[in-house]
């Protein structure tokens, strides 16, 4: 039986022969969604971060065979037409990226944080934003997250 899940709202039916393939490689090679990047391959850096049923996960470690019935959202699925997601817009407004390699994963982690965590204190942001940026843009990343959080307070 095929493995069925969705990527950015589009249904996917995957042959079982590919079920051990990491989600990152499925997205990049099979679906041509190249926003998620390969960084370390061991789930530490976060360059490959996507959403699995709304939660941020490292796609380099997740076999597609475990995705039955799941909803995957990638950086390509954040914008609505030409309207950027508020976090993407904040990244531009705060001039966050330098090299940009980690930024898709950083944005996906920030979106999950803002969608799931009501306590957006500096401690909580630091605890949830575990992605690595080799350029060291952490100050601007935190500033962009605070900008979005201030515009969209958490639901009580």
From TrEMBL:
<dbReference type="InterPro" id="IPR036010">
    <property type="entry name" value="2Fe-2S_ferredoxin-like_sf"/>
</dbReference>
<keyword id="KW-0479">Metal-binding</keyword>
<dbReference type="InterPro" id="IPR012675">
    <property type="entry name" value="Beta-grasp_dom_sf"/>
</dbReference>
<protein>
    <submittedName>
        <fullName>(2Fe-2S)-binding protein</fullName>
    </submittedName>
</protein>
<keyword id="KW-0408">Iron</keyword>
<keyword id="KW-0411">Iron-sulfur</keyword>
<dbReference type="InterPro" id="IPR002888">
    <property type="entry name" value="2Fe-2S-bd"/>
</dbReference>
<dbReference type="Pfam" id="PF01799">
    <property type="entry name" value="Fer2_2"/>
</dbReference>
<dbReference type="InterPro" id="IPR006058">
    <property type="entry name" value="2Fe2S_fd_BS"/>
</dbReference>
<keyword id="KW-0001">2Fe-2S</keyword>
<dbReference type="InterPro" id="IPR051452">
    <property type="entry name" value="Diverse_Oxidoreductases"/>
</dbReference>
<dbReference type="Pfam" id="PF00111">
    <property type="entry name" value="Fer2"/>
</dbReference>
<keyword id="KW-0830">Ubiquinone</keyword>
<feature type="domain" description="2Fe-2S ferredoxin-type">
    <location>
        <begin position="1"/>
        <end position="78"/>
    </location>
</feature>
<dbReference type="InterPro" id="IPR001041">
    <property type="entry name" value="2Fe-2S_ferredoxin-type"/>
</dbReference>
<keyword id="KW-0560">Oxidoreductase</keyword>
<dbReference type="InterPro" id="IPR036884">
    <property type="entry name" value="2Fe-2S-bd_dom_sf"/>
</dbReference>
């Amino acid at each position: 039986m095929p493995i069925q899940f969705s990527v950015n709202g589009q249904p996917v039916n995957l042959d079982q022969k590919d079920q051990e393939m990491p989600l990152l490689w499925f997205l990049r090679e099979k679906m041509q969604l190249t926003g998620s990047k390969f960084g370390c391959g061991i789930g530490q850096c976060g360059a490959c971060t996507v959403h699995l049923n709304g939660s941020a996960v490292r796609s380099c470690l997740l076999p597609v065979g475990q995705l039955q019935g799941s909803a995957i959202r990638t950086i390509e699925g954040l914008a609505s037409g030409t309207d950027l997601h508020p976090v993407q817009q904040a990244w531009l407004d705060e001039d966050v990226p330098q090299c940009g390699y980690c930024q898709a994963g950083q944005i996906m982690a920030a979106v999950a944080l803002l969608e799931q965590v009501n306590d957006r204190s500096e401690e909580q942001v630091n605890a949830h934003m575990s992605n690595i940026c080799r350029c060291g843009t952490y100050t601007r990343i935190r500033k962009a997250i605070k900008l979005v959080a201030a515009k969209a307070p958490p639901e009580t």
